[in-house]
Amino acid sequence: MKILVPVKRAVDYNVKVRVKPDNSGVDLNNVKMAINPFCEIAIEEAIRLKEKGVATEVVVVSIGDKACQEQIRTGLALGADRGIHIETDAGVVVDSLQVAKLLQKVVEAEKPDLVILGKQAIDSDNNQTGQMLAALTGMPQGTFASEVVVADGTVNVTREIDGGLQTVKLQLPAVVTTDLRLNEPRYASLPNIMKAKRKPIDVKPVADFDVDMTSKVTVIKVEAPAQRVGGVKVADVAELVHKLKNEAKVIA
Amino acid sequence: MSVLVYAEHDNESLKIETNKLVHAALGVSSDIVVLVAGSGCAAIAEAAAKISGVCKVILADNAVYEHQLPENIADLVVEVAADYSHVFAAATTTGKNFMPRVAALLDVAQISDIIKVESEDTFVRPIYAGNAIATVQSTEIKKIVTVRAASFDAAANDGSASVELLDTIKTSEKSSYVSAELTVSARPELTAADVIISGGRGMQNGENFVLLNGIADKLGAAIGASRAAVDAGFVPNDMQVGQTGKIVAPQLYIAVGISGAIQHLAGMKDSKVIVAINKDEEAPIFSVADYGLVGDLFDLLPQLEAAL
């Protein structure tokens, strides 16, 4: 069984981003970049399925400029077998639908049994790509997964939903998107990082994919959020309750 | 201009998110139709018909829609959406699940998680966990939009629209429902509660969350948790408030033993009044709290319960 894991290069989750003074976007100059945390969970899940003997090959794919090969290498160091890089020009923003269309072409060529990807990227916070890919390829989907069990041409996905957990059974091939508690990703060991340098990455220009890259959604402006101003410290519980009742008037 | 609003419900009751979606949709058009898809949902459709501003309710009542499987729901919504310029659904785990499928099947980009409607084609949405707010414009022929319900007021319930039955059945062999483990609680849901009390890593373990129960009972509050508390295994993920959990905006939010990581603040900073209880007086949570109380939560929680 072959697993395809699409990953995104994103701002490191520890970075507190700043809005550019001209409100054109977020300042990413000299900001630490990393693999999107949910994508890392997706790689880990694929590697674990390979270690269990369920999967035979794990392919990592990323879309972006040359720099995103770093994140593909991270995936290879964690245990993926090979990489595919769909290369765009530097600074090009690709929206979720375009990513899904590019991945659709990769799915058509690679014919994976399972596609595992992060539920959202922590930059655009869209939460769209996996579902769009599933729709375009006619695959069923199991989003926000906290458990993935593959058996007999199907996959049971336990999903984190607002009221608790829901389990669905999907026929393979299928798309799974990861939630936080699916697993805890490992760290790549030094020997594996060295080994990853020899694993192949197939680089393909985005122009080869015949996908319309003009987006119909434009960002008009990006602003810093309204800052909440901290209030006062109260001395004790009695003062807190008094203020909540008489000043804020939020409790009776 | 006309908006199809996808009703949020659990086959038993209509959720307040639906009223908030209608309020958001009024920013686009006064021609608003609600689609209720589910099983045994006649009463829910009647409830949706009472929301002020709704012109019509379409009810697709069939067992295939009971569990909101995205394969079925997306195909249904795509068909119904033919008559509308906009489709709005709540940015809940239901809306997030099926709406991108709808967008892809219609070959249009989706706008996720809006917090404001500027005009029929321009919307405001948070990015980078709420550390930046983007205003985006879509020239797509149809606008497929998920709405952060907590950012909108709820439309009232003094309308009287008609309910129209739709017998379209969309189903897929590729996906089926197996089971669900739903949290059973007499307390209000996090996304609908007026008061929320949340515990963080400072609670030390899952058992200590009972210290929040008495206070929650007295305030009619829902109980939430930070991602740190969920990651540490104290409580289930459906209690998580934050960027990767639920986004809430209650009248009163009480953060107990929560340091105030960016990702938690992203989920609760629009609350009307924030109270922080933490032993570390330098904790970032105090910089957003209206009222801060520095001290040991194990001393303060029983005192608070007694004082209410």
Protein architecture, described:
The complex is a heterodimer of chains A (252) and B (308). Chain A has 252 residues and is of the alpha/beta class. In chain A, 26% of the residues lie in helices and 31% in strands. Chain A has helices at residues 37-51, 69-78, 96-110, 129-137, 190-196, 237-246, and strands spanning 2-7, 9-11, 33-35, 57-64, 82-87, 114-118, 141-151, 154-161, 164-171, 174-178, 201-205, 217-223, 232-234. The longest helix of chain A has 15 residues, at 37-51. In chain B, helix 5 runs parallel beside helix 8. Chain B starts with a strand and ends with a helix. Chain B has 308 residues and is an alpha/beta fold. In chain B, strands 5-9-4-1-2-3-10 form a seven-stranded parallel β-sheet, with helices on both faces. The mean pLDDT of chain B is 95. Classes of the chains: A alpha/beta (252), B alpha/beta (308). At the A-B interface, helix 3, helix 4, strand 7, strand 8 and strand 9 of A face helix 3, helix 4, strand 5, strand 7 and strand 8 of B. Strand 9 (164-171) of chain A pairs antiparallel with strand 11 (175-182) of chain B, so a sheet runs across the interface.
Summed up, what is this model?
Chain A is an alpha/beta fold and 252 residues long.
Structural descriptors:
heterodimer; A: 252 residues; alpha/beta; 9-stranded mixed β-sheet; two-stranded antiparallel sheet; 6 helices; B: 308 residues; 7-stranded parallel β-sheet; 5-stranded parallel β-sheet; 8 helices; 28% strand
- Secondary-structure-based class of chain B equals alpha/beta
> How much β-strand is present in the residues of chain B?
25-35%
Helix run count of chain B? 8
Largest interface: A-B, 77 and 91 residues
Counted beta strands of chain B: 16
Major sheet of chain A: size, sense and barrel closure?
9 strands, mixed
- The counted number of beta strands of chain A is 13
Strand content of chain A: 25-35%
The number of helices of chain A is 6
The quaternary organization reads as heterodimer
In what order do the strands lie side by side in the largest sheet of chain B?
A: 5-9-4-1-2-3-10
Could you spell the SSE succession of chain B in H and E letters? EHEHEHEHEEEEEEEEHEHEHEEH
Side-by-side strand order of the widest sheet of chain A: 9-8-7-10-6-1-4-5-11
